[in-house]
Amino acid sequence: MTAILFVCFANRFRSPLAAAFFSQSLEKVADPESWSVSSAGTWTENGLPADIRAIQDANEWGLDIKAHRSRQVDAQILSQNNLILVMETGQKEALRIEFSRESKKIFLLSEVVDSSAYDIPDPFGGTGIPHKEVATELHALIERGFTKIYNAALNSEKRIFLV
Known about the structure:
43% of the residues lie in helices and 13% in strands. The protein has six helices and four strands; from the N terminus they run βαβααβαβαα. It has a four-stranded parallel beta sheet with strand order 2-1-3-4, sandwiched between helices. By secondary structure, it is of the alpha/beta class. The chain has one domain (2-154): 3-Layer(aba) Sandwich (Rossmann fold). The protein has helices at 14-29, 52-60, 75-79, 89-98, 109-114, 131-154, and strands at 2-8, 35-41, 83-86, 106-108. α1 (14-29) packs parallel to α2.
């Protein structure tokens, strides 16, 4: 089974949306049973629901994430995934340091999609960026980068997807 993990800070907005967007695209090209698409947070409490704004934004793309519950990232979760995509440079650095055994499969989402490292802002981290704008950016990233993400997860052992 090919497994991909999306990671953000609280696992209540960006990473559950990214996972839902990727899963939606995956259903069009692959057997969903042969994939595991999930999300986690670097600094969260287990069991919290998705933020209501994430639920509303997901609904606009025909997705239902009401059942989502937050999970704190840990070594076991990371080890179960072929590819780990984070939203911010600080998350990538922290995870690579704390979980060095998994460091070769941790990347910024932007790095895999656009071959350029930039952060996907947290609409609730004092950035002032509206949640709708972040959701739209995530959707656009997943849409235009789906093939790259898909191939990166499939070829994770070969590490041929990043120059």
